[in-house]
Fold:
Amino acid sequence: MHDRKKRFENAKIQSLIFNKKKFSMSQAKEWTIDHGYKAVKVEPTKNTWRIRQFSPNKIKRGTECKTIQFGGSGVQGVLCNTPDKFKRDRYAKDGKLSTSLGAILSPQKKPPAVLLKQINSDLDSREELIGKNKEIKAEIKADPKSSFANADIEEFKENSKVIRELSKDIKKAFKDIPKEERQNVDRELINRLRVLR
Structure:
């Protein structure tokens, strides 16, 4: 037991995993940022959102990974060793955060700057998925009998579902910005939001 614990002394969180029953995509990204992690890209699976912190290629060869629980929040972390010694991630010694799910998802009003950051991040994710779906449509059109066609269609459907969810989250976040503050939003963001109307 002691040897196993020692093997993970210099480990780092490679991915965060969020249960879709407890978190929307925006809530997963918000939790990630609030707890000091990166939320650059969200990878949807059937039941979870996965937010990668670094590439699997950077996992130290010949070592193992383990999954830890962040309390009862519905969040898991994939803990892996890397070639370099990283600073320990922000979790308690037993791998659990003290933050409760209620505190994470509390309905407290967020400052306009936080909402704008969330909107921009969600717009980026939405546009990336739209681009991905265009590629999938082109691939299916070019070779409809491909052995990957069914998998591509399922991915297209999942992406479309996430796009709709992101659109709702973006509209809600913008609505939460006080009217007087909306006038200060830059023109580029306004133009990006017009596609949601």
In short: Strands lie at 11-19, 42-44, 48-52, 65-69, 75-81.
